[in-house]
């Protein structure tokens, strides 16, 4: 998987949230959490696995809403940040963080109601095998996001530390067919890519976001969106 060693360094883990979700990145954090909650709905007593949970943004959020959730990641330092976040939020006693490989999920078939993976598939070197594992351990729903090939995301892809895998709609459809997943819902957003928002103050980012949403709501919005959210059923 791309970036596996990079994400396992202490300094990257410690600065991950502040670099990505401060300034204009706050808009990204809010929208991503909204997308997850819209897709999976009420989570009271629902069993959830978050694959590649990183610093636990979604893990802690879903635990706070009553989910029975496990956050899995390959990076020990990222998981340490997640545990601190869960402790600060007062939810550390009803979630579990586990170090593991998303290519070989350490759970039996149909173990979770829902499996979520955010900010993961742009790093996946073998996305079909990862998605098949997510489908295997889910008995109902798999939710994930992708960055899109025909978007402004491609313009700064070269500047990322380990590159980024971008997907066309055809590639996503092929992945779903291969994993035996049925598309139940989709959303497409952020004509301006994430990297742009992270570089500017939140107040300024809010103005650009308003313009972004207008373009996104237009007939061409879905075609030029840089990120897509895929809600699928087993």
Automatic annotation (TrEMBL):
Pfam families: Methyltransf_25 (PF13649). GO terms for biological process: methylation. Residues 48-139 form the Methyltransferase domain. The keyword Methyltransferase applies. It comes from Halomicrobium mukohataei (strain ATCC 700874 / DSM 12286 / JCM 9738 / NCIMB 13541). Keywords: Methyltransferase, Transferase. The keyword Magnesium does not apply. This is Methyltransferase type 11. One of its GO terms (molecular function) is methyltransferase activity. It comes from the Archaea.
């Amino acid at each position: 998987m791309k970036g596996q060693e990079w994400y396992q360094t202490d300094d990257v883990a410690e600065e991950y949230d502040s670099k990505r979700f401060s300034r204009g990145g706050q808009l990204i954090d809010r929208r991503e959490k909204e997308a997850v909650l819209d897709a999976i709905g009420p989570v009271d007593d629902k069993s959830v696995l978050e694959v590649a949970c990183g610093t636990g943004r979604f893990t802690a959020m879903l635990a706070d809403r009553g989910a029975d959730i496990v956050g899995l990641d390959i990076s020990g330092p990222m998981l340490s940040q997640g545990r601190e976040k869960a402790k600060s939020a007062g939810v550390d006693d009803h979630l579990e963080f586990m170090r593991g490989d998303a290519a070989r999920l350490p759970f039996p078939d149909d173990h979770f109601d829902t499996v979520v993976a955010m900010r993961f598939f742009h790093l996946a070197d073998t996305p079909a095998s990862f998605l098949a594992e997510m489908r295997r351990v889910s008995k109902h729903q798999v939710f994930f996001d992708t960055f899109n090939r025909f978007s402004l995301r491609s313009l700064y892809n070269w500047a990322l530390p380990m590159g980024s895998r971008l997907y066309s709609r055809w590639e996503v459809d092929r992945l779903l067919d291969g994993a035996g997943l049925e598309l139940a819902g989709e959303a497409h957003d952020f004509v301006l890519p994430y990297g742009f928002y992270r570089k500017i103050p939140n107040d300024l980012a809010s103005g650009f976001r308003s313009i972004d949403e207008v373009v996104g709501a237009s007939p061409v919005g879905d075609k030029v969106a840089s990120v897509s959210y895929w809600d699928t059923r087993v």
